[in-house]
Design goal:
By secondary structure, this protein is an alpha/beta fold. It has one domain: TIM Barrel. It is 41% helix and 15% strand. The chain has an 8-stranded parallel sheet. A two-stranded antiparallel sheet has the order 1-2. Helix 1 runs parallel beside helix 2, helix 2 packs across helix 3 and helix 3 packs across helix 5. 48% of the residues are buried. The model has no long low-confidence stretch (mean pLDDT 98). It binds NADP nicotinamide-adenine-dinucleotide phosphate. NADP nicotinamide-adenine-dinucleotide phosphate binds next to helix 10.
């Protein structure tokens, strides 16, 4: 079965299930993304700061898949929010990826502790990049409501935020839904920690699937865009094999009850990087 698409407010679409490559070395990224493309992923999530855009680009080039059939996201790092720096950053990312445009360009963090409101300047630059065709759609990551409210001009199409069963971001998800901004879940498996939860194990057993497949299914049924990462070929494949079963209302409710406010990454309001 094909991957559902989420339609952005700008009319473009994103495959709801993608492949993340944070903490994947540049040379490891090529075989991992090749495997992902081989098993059917068409949406890849990287970032300048991951240091693997070249490795991802190699896999894209090797795949022979038509550009229009791929959805590639990369992100602007925090130290490049000034307009001239942002332009250099997107040009460098495109060169490393070997592409003339990305499908989605994100401001990686608001980074207000270190760089004040420079993210607003970055947002203005991103709108220029979109107008020039360097990025088809533009969005943000790790933005809270106050950061969204401060943006001028175009509205971001998506906010990529930490979101997994033990950290569910219910309030922020409501804010994003009200604003017509898609929600994308990073660390969707809780960096593998949520896989150990007994409720997840029980639900996975009920379907004869892995805990990761059960969690990915929960994200899909919630309406999140979801980008699990793995460098293990069998996991890359099984994490994509999530369209042959559906969680029941009871199972969705049971996972919805697991929120513990268990944040694993930085808090966008206090992060000092
Ligand atoms: N915007 C942001 O600030 C931000 C921050 C963090 C992440 N992200 C994005 O979100 C993506 C996903 O998040 P993440 O990488 O932090 O964590 P994740 O996808 O929640 O978890 C990845 C971990 O789970 C393991 N794993 C994956 N599938 C598994 C399976 N089927 N069974 C058992 N273990 C499994 C992986 O191990 P192996 O790799 O060893 O198989 C890895 O240790 C990133 O790669 C990145 O693209 C964005």
């Amino acid at each position: 079965m094909s991957v559902p698409q989420i339609t952005f407010h700008d009319g473009k679409q994103i495959p709801q299930l993608g492949f993340g490559v944070w903490q994947v070395e540049n040379d490891q990224a090529t075989p991992a993304v090749e495997k992902a493309l081989e098993v059917g992923y068409r949406h890849i999530d990287t970032a300048a700061i991951y240091g693997n855009e070249e490795g991802v680009g190699k896999a894209i080039a090797n795949s022979g898949i038509a550009r229009e059939d791929l959805f590639i996201t990369t992100k602007l790092w925090n130290d490049a929010h000034k307009a001239a720096d942002a332009r250099k950053a997107i040009e460098t990312s495109l060169e490393k990826l070997g592409l003339d445009h990305v499908d989605l360009y994100l401001i990686h963090w608001p980074a207000t502790v270190k760089y004040g409101d420079a993210y607003i300047e970055a947002w203005n630059a991103m709108q220029e990049f979109q107008a020039e065709g360097l990025a088809t759609s533009i969005g943000v990551s790790n933005f809270h409501e106050q950061h969204l409210s401060a943006l001028e001009g175009a509205k971001p199409v998506i906010d990529q935020v930490e979101l997994h069963p033990t950290f569910q971001q219910s309030e922020l998800r409501s804010v994003l839904a009200e604003r017509g901004i898609a929600t994308e879940a990073w660390s969707p498996l809780g960096q593998s920690k949520d896989l150990q939860h007994e409720v997840i194990a029980r639900i996975a057993d009920e379907h004869g699937v892995s805990p990761a497949q059960a969690i990915i299914r929960w994200h899909l049924q919630l309406g999140n865009v979801v980008i699990p990462k793995s460098v293990t070929p069998e996991r890359i494949a099984s994490n994509f094999d999530v369209f042959g079963f559906e969680l029941t209302g009871e199972q969705m409710d049971a996972i919805n009850a697991l929120d513990e406010g268990n944040r694993l990454g930085g808090n966008p309001d206090t992060a000092d990087f």
